[in-house]
């Protein structure tokens, strides 16, 4: 009830107003518009949104705090213990090394690699490897490595020093890691940075189609990129891979590669070539040729980049000569 209505009521009760007095006309009362402080449902909605945003921010901050980086200094050496070893084939192993805590990530940019260091026969041996795990994995890093045993290859009767050292490591023993290392950086959809050398600043390279030539364990840097790109729904960069091996049994991570090709048919193309193919083999055989590259990799162009990784014969006798023959320029080729 407003003040004038209240006063009239009092007058009528006391008999002060004449009986014949006409009733006063009052404008219709309108309810004031409710503000946020007067509307319970609106206030509740704002409160819920605010609390939700705060929780997400705090979770993000806590997540970052829970993800300490292992490779903080690219020149430092970090001793990491072997915690698991899996036999993938007669000469290939997956080695899992533990990080300093279950919450640690390795801290390796996509496109980079690590170095392993060990003193073998009184000599410091350093080898480069690309992990097949990523910074989505906490507490460990995985390497897939082919073991070069003694007296297997006539040109290398002593085998590989580092790979045999790793093969003989016991669970719990440590080896030094160093990194990140590398000249290639993948920043996002089709956006790469490439250093001309280890000391130069990266130069920007835009590519909408990545061609890949890999031999043996040279698949690991390609797998790192393939996994990263295909798990990002916003990244539509296309990839085409020629994967060379000696025998069908030597094809590493075949199941995963073929699953990616099946689930991303418009983004990832896969082709094999074998030195010794089985009967009925439906892919190529022998060394990588110009015709093979022309048929299965993107043509030369400003938005094309061909990545090459594998043993020296594949790089020097197959990949580079045939790429140059087909007109790929140096800025279209990157060799790990």
TrEMBL record:
Any Gene Ontology CC annotation: endoplasmic reticulum membrane
PANTHER family, A to Z: NADH-CYTOCHROME B5 REDUCTASE, NADH-CYTOCHROME B5 REDUCTASE 2
UniProt-recorded Gene Ontology molecular function terms: cytochrome-b5 reductase activity, acting on NAD(P)H; cytochrome-b5 reductase activity, acting on NADH; FAD binding
PROSITE patterns, per database record: FAD_FR
Reaction catalysed by this enzyme: 2 Fe(III)-[cytochrome b5] + NADH = 2 Fe(II)-[cytochrome b5] + NAD(+) + H(+)
Boundaries of every FAD-binding FR-type domain copy: 75-187
EC annotation from Swiss-Prot or TrEMBL: 1.6.2.2
Binding site for FAD: 127, 129, 144, 146, 149, 161-162, 220
Cited InterPro entries: CBR-like, Cbr1-like_FAD-bd_dom, FAD-bd_FR_type, Flavoprot_Pyr_Nucl_cyt_Rdtase, FNR_nucleotide-bd, OxRdtase_FAD/NAD-bd, Riboflavin_synthase-like_b-brl
The protein, known as: NADH-cytochrome b5 reductase
Keywords: FAD, Flavoprotein, Lipid biosynthesis, Lipid metabolism, Membrane, NAD, Oxidoreductase, Steroid biosynthesis, Steroid metabolism, Sterol biosynthesis, Sterol metabolism, Transmembrane, Transmembrane helix
Any one biological process term the GO annotation gives: sterol biosynthetic process
Regions that span the bilayer: 41-58
Pfam families for the chain: FAD_binding_6, NAD_binding_1
Similarity comment text for this entry: Belongs to the flavoprotein pyridine nucleotide cytochrome reductase family.
Biased composition (Basic residues): 23-34
Species of the source: Gorilla gorilla gorilla (Western lowland gorilla)
Name of the gene this protein is made from: LOC101134045
């Amino acid at each position: 009830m407003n003040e004038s209505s209240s006063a009239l009521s009092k007058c009528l009760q006391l008999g002060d107003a004449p009986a014949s007095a006409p009733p006063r006309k009052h404008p219709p009362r309108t309810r004031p518009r409710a503000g946020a402080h007067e509307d319970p449902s609106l206030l509740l909605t704002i409160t819920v949104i605010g609390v939700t945003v705060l929780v997400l921010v705090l979770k993000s901050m806590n997540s970052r705090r829970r993800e300490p980086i292992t490779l903080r200094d690219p020149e430092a050496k970090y001793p990491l213990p072997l915690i698991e070893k899996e036999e993938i084939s007669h000469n290939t192993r997956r080695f899992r090394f533990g990080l300093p805590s279950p919450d640690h990530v390795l801290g390796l940019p996509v496109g980079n690699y690590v170095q392993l260091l060990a003193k073998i026969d009184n000599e410091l041996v350093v080898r480069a490897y690309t992990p097949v795990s990523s910074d989505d994995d906490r507490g460990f890093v995985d390497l897939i490595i082919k073991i070069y045993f003694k007296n297997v290859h006539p040109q290398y009767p002593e085998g590989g020093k580092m790979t045999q050292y790793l093969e003989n490591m016991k669970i719990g023993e440590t080896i030094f890691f160093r990194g990140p290392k590398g000249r290639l950086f993948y920043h996002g959809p089709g956006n790469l940075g490439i250093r001309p050398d280890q000391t130069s600043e990266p130069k920007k390279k835009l590519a909408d189609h990545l061609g890949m030539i890999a031999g043996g364990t040279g698949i690991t840097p390609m797998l790192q990129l393939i996994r990263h790109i295909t798990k990002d729904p916003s990244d539509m960069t296309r990839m085409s891979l020629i994967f060379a091996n000696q025998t069908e049994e030597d094809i590493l991570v075949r199941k995963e590669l073929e699953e990616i090709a099946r689930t991303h048919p418009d983004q990832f193309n896969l082709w094999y070539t074998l030195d010794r193919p089985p009967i009925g083999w439906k892919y190529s055989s022998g060394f990588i040729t110009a015709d093979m590259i022309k048929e299965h990799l993107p043509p030369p162009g400003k938005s094309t980049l061909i990545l090459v990784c594998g043993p020296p014969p594949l790089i020097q006798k197959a990949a580079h000569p045939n790429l140059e023959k087909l007109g790929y320029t140096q800025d279209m080729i990157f060799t790990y």
